[in-house]
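HUMAN: Quick job: go over this next protein and say how the chain folds.
***
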Amino acid sequence: MKKDKVSVIIPAYHCAGTIRKAIDSALMQEVPLEVLVIDDCGGEDIEGIVKEYGAEPRLFYVKNEKNLGAAATRNKAARLATGNYLAYLDADDWWEKGKLQKQLLKLQETGDVLCCTARELATPEGNLTGKVIPVHERLTYRELLKHNQINCSSVLIRREAALKFPMEHEDSHEDYITWLRVLKEYGTASGINEPLLKYRLSSQGKSGSKLHSAAMTFKVYRYMGFGMGRSVLCFLSYAAHGIWKYLA
């Protein structure tokens, strides 16, 4: 694990009020890392915020020439990264101390290329709710088809796997498509059932509307090449799990 370096990818778009907490939570991780803040042209002074950290050698700022969206921004950062692992962190979320170290150890133990964690929900103002969304310790492709347990901001993934299966189709849940393709290729992924991710709820993101999110999930199955019948069955399982996740 001593040789491992993590490249933390933080896409920045309309996030000036929350990104400092995300950056701070990344920099406090006790593993070799770099933090790549990719400004996706949201009209805010993200560069100025990064400059507040002075000569922090692990923190880097890159600005897109035009708005690319979250998927293309993450893919760009993956190409720029110098770590052998990538960790995705949305600018309105944050991590517990020790998250990356625990994930690196888990991947060393299992030999998997991807590890995710449970998450605790927070209000838009950043207040923790105590509601925890769990994950299984072993995840398979077949299981993930029924229910996407993998939250993007919780993921640590081998860089070569992320480059092999970049995020595509931003009109759907592009990260879900990537996790499905990764698990189909590599077989299993690891989960740490601890809320090491603090996930801020928001109605402003592209998945904010439950109906819109549901429509994007159905598109995931279609982009995976499934016929209408199989897509409907997968979607019904997704819907049932979604009701349980937020209302249980």
Q: What stands out?
A: The first helix runs from residue 19 to 27. The radius of gyration is 17 Å. The beta strands are 6-12, 33-39, 59-63, 85-88, 94-95, 114-122, 128-133, 138-140, 156-158, 188-200.
